[in-house]
Amino acid sequence: MKKKIIVLGAGMVGSAIAVDLSEKYSVTSADINENNLQKIKGDNINTICANLTDAKTITKIISDFDLIIGALPGTIGFKTMETVIKAKKDIVDISFFNEDPFLLDTLAKQNNVTAITDCGVAPGMPNIFLGHHNLLMKVENFKFYVGGLPIARKMPYQYKAPFSPIDVISEYTREVKMVEQGRIVKKEALSEIETMEFDQVGTLEAFNTDGLRSLIKTMPNIPEMSEKTLRYPGHAALMKILRDTGFFNEEPVYINETPIKPIDLTSKLIFPIWKLKEDEEEFTIMRIIIKGTENGAFKKYAYDLFDKFDKKTGTSSMARSTGYTCAAAANLVLDGLYNRKGISPPEYIGAESKAFEAVINYLKKRNIKYKQSVSVTKK
Fold first, then answer.
1. Is residue 377, in this structure, part of any structural domain at all?
2. 281: helix, coil or strand?
3. Quick one: which of 59, 97, 272, 341 is 20 to 30 A from 149 by CA?
């Protein structure tokens, strides 16, 4: 009998996960939006229309499944994971919620649950690569750059949101944590803009965002760690203007005695402009750099990803690169290749060689390839 998976969330990424996993498992997709469910292109996927903000509803609908996939917006991701763990169900999650997942570690262990968090393209794959190399070398410097962008650039934003737009805005407002000289430092999002050249797309800009997440806690011995988001040049400056003017504020302002959150108004105006059109071509680009001492030599490992919209299947690059990483982790759990109990950020997967190899091979079969380059260099 096929093992049963339920995917909570039928957005762009959640639906891609459901379709991919349906080739091997019995899959059900759940979402509050019936239109999202109707758009799923898999023939063998059951659907449930339900309010996934309600813990009782989630507990009821997941009761008969072997594994839960969390693909909901970050605003409800933490509570959803807590509900799933209390129901004693294993979960792989890509909601990228703001809360510290390790707050649920004790609960997960008490309930004998494997809970894999942040298992997408980024966070996700950079963590997995770092977890792998941290076993083989003394890592001294780790950084990665990542972005998802439309191929067609349109002013003024030159951007489309391939996932929940409210989560994009949080990247521009949330304080950034990074590691410099062995110390955790805090910086402003959108700061320290630099330009980078990529063969496939030319010049992009990179700026600080809070993407290290669990690595701050799980990799305390690495003295230099940072993450930056990639956009077309000029985007960061525009976002900084909106942020600093207050358009992203949560605190209500009063207009004719009516309280209005600026972020709500901004979202209402910007999100239609940022929405990817059906079959609109976009790409995911990432560069991961890991430096350190290995077998007496100072080495630099670089991994480059450039993935485009799949015209054949109509699947966006962000859905592919994020969703298939999540699906790879789901296979690890169901195939018994990964069963660590408690909260598991992706670096824990990378630290287990068989699991690491399985993820890389899973992605290769779906034409998501990370090009590796290695050099021996001076510090």
1. no
2. coil
3. 97
